[in-house]
Amino acid sequence: MAGGIHPSAVIDPSARLGADVSIGAFCTIGADVEIGDRSVIDAHASVLGPTRMGCDNHVHGFAAIGGDPQDKKFAGERTELVIGDGNTIREFATISRGTGNGGGVTRIGDDNWFLAYVHIAHDCQVGSHCVFSNNATLAGHVEVGDHVILSGFVGVHQFCRIGAHAFVGMGAFVNGDVPPYVLVAQEGYGRPRGINAEGLKRRGFDSARIAAIKRAYRALYASGAKLDEARLHLAQLARDSDDVRALLDFIERGERPLLR
Question: N or C: which end of the chain has fewer CB within 10 A?
């Protein structure tokens, strides 16, 4: 749509708006906000700063972007929210800035879909091409890789990581690290239930790559091996598979328990 600013919008003089940006009725654009070209901020949404938002983003009505972190330790220090290009942020979604002792930046990649009532807390790092369904919630300091799908009402515990191409089923509570490619199902707290084979096929993974990932999953989850033993097996499988290598690297970097 062609850019334009509704006369009822409140825009701080320090905000910087790119070409063809559209700001709807009763929006609030705060100090130290940058919004990239062709972005759309629908009626009643707010974008507070410091926030840097790239091009071609669409923020729907009543979303609250760049607000103070919901953290008692936050003392008003300068922190940021950085959002990439082409994201869709639906109604009533909330994305908080970072905290001073948590890295200072909440960061969102490109081409994500965040549906209604999604919450992304302070200091989270979210990749690109993700889909967070309605009411999916990230606590603080969560890391999410590329092409991750969180179904409705998913809750992720603080400091957890979710690897690329993972799928978390509706209502699951995630309290440990989810490796790349893994499918998590709801049983109170979420539990691994195979790999996200259908998602991998849709993204162009061929049968050989998927078979290698399945072997890695069996070594990690179905063999009965302890984690140290499983890691040795994964190291062998990783010699012939970059995908298994990525999975093993994810495990090696972990500080929280692995979801098993």
Answer: N
**Could you report how far apart the first and last alpha carbons of the chain are, in Å?**
47
The reply to whether 123 belongs to the active site is: yes
198-230 burial, b at 16+ Cβ within 10 Å, e below that, comes to ebbeeeebeeebbebbebbbbbbbeeeeeeeeb
Among 140, 145, 155, 163, which one carries the catalytic annotation? 140
In a domain, 191, yes or no: no
CATH number at residue 222: 1.20.1180
Active-site residue flag, 122: yes
CA-CA distances (angstroms) from residue 67 to 117, 165, 191? Answer: 15, 29, 33
Has residue 195 been placed in a domain? no
CA of 187: how far to CAs of 107, 141, 180, 184, in Å? Answer: 30, 24, 20, 9
Lowest mean pLDDT among 68-72, 91-95, 186-190, 248-252: 186-190
**Of 58, 122, 141, 233, which is the active-site residue?**
122
Q: Which of 123, 146, 177, 243 is catalytic?
A: 123
Region 52-76: what's the mean pLDDT?
97
Q: Tokens for 257, please give them.
A: 């328990």
- Contacts of range 9-18, beta carbons closer than 8 Å, 24 or more positions apart: 12/49, 15/49, 18/55
Q: Which domain holds residue 247?
A: 201-252
Inside any domain, residue 170: no
The reply to whether 56 belongs to the active site is no
pLDDT at 151: 97
Going from the C-alpha of 58 to that of each of 13, 39, 42, 55, 106, the distances in angstroms are: 22, 6, 8, 9, 18
Q: Is residue 150 part of a domain?
A: no
pLDDT surpasses 70 at 190:
yes
